[in-house]
Design a protein that fits this description.
single chain; 2 helices; 78% helix; rod-shaped
């Protein structure tokens, strides 16, 4: 495996790990947020799609 291939593999692993952490966090907060107000469900869904959909906002 070349250095470039190794780097791509490590980057993919890192992105997958971050996505997993974000998904876990949002899943754990869903019930808390729903208890505050059921109106938050669509917002939480949008946030989840934003952070786990593969596209990232860049500054």
């Amino acid at each position: 495996m070349t250095a470039a291939e190794q780097l791509r593999h490590e980057q993919a692993d890192y992105v997958a790990a971050v996505a997993g952490e974000l998904t876990g966090f949002l899943t754990s907060r869903q019930s808390v947020m729903s208890a505050i107000s059921p109106d938050i469900d669509p917002i939480m869904g949008s946030i989840s799609n934003l952070v786990t959909g593969g596209k990232r906002l860049r500054a």
